[in-house]
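STRUCTURE:
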């Protein structure tokens, strides 16, 4: 079995277990552990517990790999492979009892920054929705037995998704991006989960997705899903505090890029 498939199978097994833990804790009631950068940027006790479980399982299976997680930070390894993990992406949905949250786990080769790494495998598991999206580089993106493919035709306009930063000071810029993108949209969604937005682009449930200021763990697994489903994922303004991510099939990507190119902080 290739390294990519081995890593994918490990990511899927761990994501499944982590998803079940997140679901169980949600049913027991969510306790807010802290706010992070702003009042909207919450972290739950479950976030921390789920990341601990994921980190423990991955370290036991592959002790030489590095780790980069949303809650517990980074740990370097010697194998050249790093696990990039968001234990609960869509934390605000999770806290409010909305089902659009997921466990996102990716294995990447190279420095653990999106511009340098090569993503090898990923899993996005949405336990409350009963779906797990998986990808291995060169082996396609899948949900269950169904191979994923981005959309190519948007005669009635594109169904787009976006997200907003937690810091209120960034909202004006995000709204400016929305205003521009609406000219090519049939409608716009804001799910509250970047990894699911990317998975849905891969699955053809959305035609395109853009967001400024995503963190590496928000996009690592989802971007590989889109790539393996025939889509294009790019990051712009990478030197800025809020790089712009655009993910879509090639035509929608080109149109979105043309519209959003002028948007800055
Ligand atoms: C957030 C979600 C949200 C996106 C934010 C992310 P978190 O991740 O993916 O949809 O708009 O930019 O930070 O904080 O729930 O892991």
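SEQUENCE:
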């Amino acid at each position: 079995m290739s390294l990519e498939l081995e890593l994918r199978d490990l990511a899927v097994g761990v994501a499944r277990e982590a998803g079940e833990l997140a679901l169980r804790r949600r049913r027991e009631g969510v306790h807010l552990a802290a706010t992070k950068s702003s009042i909207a940027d919450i972290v739950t006790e479950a976030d921390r517990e789920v990341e601990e479980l994921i980190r423990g399982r991955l370290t036991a299976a592959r002790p030489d790999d590095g780790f980069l997680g949303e809650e517990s930070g980074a740990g370097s390894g010697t194998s050249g492979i790093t696990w990039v993990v968001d234990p609960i992406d869509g934390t605000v949905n999770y806290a409010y009892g909305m089902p659009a949250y997921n466990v996102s786990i990716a294995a990447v080769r190279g420095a653990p920054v999106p511009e340098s790494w090569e993503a090898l495998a990923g899993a996005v598991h949405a336990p409350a929705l009963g779906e797990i999206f998986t990808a291995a580089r060169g082996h396609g993106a899948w949900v269950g037995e169904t191979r994923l493919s981005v959309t190519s035709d948007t005669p009635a306009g594109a169904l787009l998704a976006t997200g907003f930063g937690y810091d209120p000071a960034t909202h004006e810029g995000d709204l400016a991006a929305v205003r521009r993108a609406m000219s090519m949209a049939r409608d716009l969604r804001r799910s509250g989960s970047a990894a699911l937005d990317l998975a849905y682009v891969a699955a053809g449930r959305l035609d395109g997705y853009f967001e400024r200021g995503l963190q590496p763990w928000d996009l690592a697994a989802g971007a590989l899903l889109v790539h393996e489903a025939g889509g294009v994922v790019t990051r712009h303004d990478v030197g800025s505090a809020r790089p712009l991510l655009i993910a879509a099939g090639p035509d929608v990507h080109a149109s979105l890029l043309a519209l959003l190119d002028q948007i800055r902080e």
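REMARK: The first strand starts at residue 32 and ends at 35.
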